[in-house]
UniProtKB/TrEMBL annotation:
Annotated region (Disordered), positions in chain: 206-226
Lineage: Eukaryota, Metazoa, Chordata, Craniata, Vertebrata
Protein name from the UniProt record: Claudin
Membrane topology: Multi-pass membrane protein
GO molecular function terms noted in the UniProt entry: structural molecule activity
Length: 226
């Protein structure tokens, strides 16, 4: 049980780190590699900044102008990723409290409920991150394969794959946390024998057995006065 919870927490913690890295990354979409070879420049964008680089290794980034001019799907992805990070943080706190290796959280039954709550929070965090990355990727692919779209076309960036991996880890780790409480509830309970009714009898038996037999042996009756 303890080893399973440790593995689940490692999965969830790595997933939270991946969600943070994906949220802060500027490579959610990048220009096509074929066009970058010809122009020797490429453009990559994230949720917060637009960046441009060249073959010499120099790049320049600028933030999105205002929140009102940002496209709706980018705002939705921002909200989902921030929600995923916040949920992952609270899930990590509840996970530490609910694990058996920690000294806080109360009884084992209470800690099991807290661990299950942490698992549900991590699953929600993974779903938010998965939805955000999938929504962004769907917009990129629809524009890339749309023949009527004449603006700059982009490909999937590394941040999307990091976000998908982190979301998968959070969902897997959260599911393990939830299954750990089921395993704890199915474990056999210890039985205790009730000795209240037999305590008086057993004590009397012990006292009776402890009294020595003072009756002299029979072979002393004949030879006592010889």
């Amino acid at each position: 049980m303890l080893g399973i919870q440790i593995i689940a927490f490692i999965f969830c913690f790595c997933g939270l780190g991946a969600a943070i890295a994906a949220t802060a990354s500027n490579e959610w979409k990048v220009t096509s590699r074929a066009s970058s070879v010809i122009t020797a420049t490429w453009v990559f964008q994230g949720l917060w900044m637009n960046c441009a680089g060249n073959a010499l290794g120099a790049f320049h980034c600028r933030p999105h102008l205002t929140i009102f001019k940002v496209e709706g799907y980018i705002q939705a992805c921002r909200g989902l990723m921030i929600s995923a990070v916040c949920l992952g943080f609270f899930g990590a706190v509840f996970g530490l409290v609910g694990m058996k290796c920690t000294k806080v959280g109360g009884s084992d039954q209470t800690k099991a409920k807290i661990a299950c709550l942490a698992g549900l929070i991590f699953i929600l965090s993974g779903l938010c991150s998965m939805t955000s990355c999938s929504l962004y990727a769907n917009r990129i692919t629809s524009e890339f394969f749309d023949p009527s779209f004449v603006a700059q076309k982009y490909e999937l960036g590394a941040a999307l794959f990091i976000g998908w991996a982190g979301a998968s880890l959070c969902i897997i780790g959260g599911s393990i946390f939830c299954f750990s409480i089921a395993e704890n509830s199915n474990s056999p309970r210890r039985g205790y024998a009730y000795n209240g009714a037999t305590s008086v009898i057993s004590s009397r038996t012990k006292v009776h057995n402890s009294v020595p037999d003072k009756t002299p042996p029979k072979h002393f009756d004949k030879n006592a006065y010889v």
